[in-house]
Design goal:
2 domains, Glucose Permease (Domain IIA), five-stranded antiparallel β-sheet, ten-stranded antiparallel β-sheet, globular, 289 residues, disordered N terminus, Immunoglobulin-like, mainly beta
């Protein structure tokens, strides 16, 4: 929904907490955004959505406002969500409740045939490896640095045909194994892959499922990921610019053929990367597609 909802929430008879929400409806696996006008004596702390919490940051283009991203887990069922805004007014801790409507993203289903060893690995060594790689990634995603590396609109890492959208329920060799966690772009081996925006490389290594993988921290809880590469052009710790070549596409990891898998995380949750790019560009960087 594109309508703009403005919520002026009374906290006292003399003071109004000014929060604006472009849309209070969000699909599972996608992201909403909120804005908070800075007021004297008011400090915004964080959002609480159930057991998950999200930090509130300064708007990169408007110093008079703060903003927060509200991602939704892919497995969330359609429901009304009460989101709590924690803030302090004149050093007094307060809470304001907002209502969000989580709806079904209506994702399709696809069947994929890969090596049996990539569906249900039996080896203890492989199981230990995948558990270690998962823990390493989640530790990375769990950090929302206050620093924001981004100053302009996001771009896609490759201009080619999308072969598989985010969110499709995936059936590997007739066995349902979760959902497609990103967007796949057609790419023959060796195609240059560029960074979606400025950021810091926080992972660049080979992993069992995602093959040669790069993760970039864009700051303030936003990460983009580039999988199945054939070569790395950056290393951990590198500061990259939007549009910089970071690797070459390939066919490593659990794949049916060469392509680029592009994904994103917000506040630790996996979300639709293209919807996130559109949301950030429209609401933070003034780009209307």
């Amino acid at each position: 929904m594109s309508f703009f909802v403005s919520l002026f929430l009374l906290t006292t008879s003399l003071f109004a907490l000014d929060i604006s929400v472009p849309s209070t409806t969000v699909s599972n696996g996608r992201t909403a955004i909120l804005f908070f006008k800075k007021e004297k004596g008011v400090t915004y702390t964080k959002l609480l959505d159930g057991k998950r919490s999200y930090r509130i940051f300064e708007d990169p283009k408007d110093s008079s406002k703060m903003y927060a991203l509200l991602p939704q887990n892919y497995y969330n069922k359609p429901a009304k969500h009460t989101v709590k805004v924690l803030y302090k007014q004149n050093k007094k801790s307060l809470v304001k409740k907002l209502n969000f409507n989580v709806v079904d993203g209506k994702y399709a289903k696809e069947t994929i045939h890969v090596q049996k060893s990539k569906v249900n690995p039996k080896s203890k060594a492989v199981k230990k490896r995948t558990a270690r790689e998962y823990a390493e990634a989640m530790k990375i995603y769990g950090k929302a640095t206050a620093k924001n590396y981004v100053s302009s609109a996001y771009i896609v890492p490759l201009n080619s045909k999308i072969t598989s959208d985010f969110g499709k329920a995936r059936v590997y060799n007739d066995t349902l194994k979760g959902y497609h966690s990103g967007t796949d772009f057609r790419a023959k081996v060796g195609t240059p892959i560029i960074s979606s925006n400025d950021g810091k490389v926080v992972l660049a290594k080979n992993r069992f499922y995602s093959g040669n993988s790069i993760i970039i921290n864009h700051g303030q809880g936003v990460y983009t990921c580039y999988y199945h590469l054939s070569a790395f052009k950056v290393k951990v710790g590198d500061i990259v610019k939007k549009g910089q070549i970071i690797g070459l596409s390939g066919a490593t990891g659990r794949i049916t053929g060469p392509h680029l898998h592009f994904s994103a995380r917000v506040g630790g949750l996996q979300v639709d990367p293209l919807q996130l790019v559109t949301l950030l560009n429209k609401n933070l960087y003034g780009v209307h597609e």
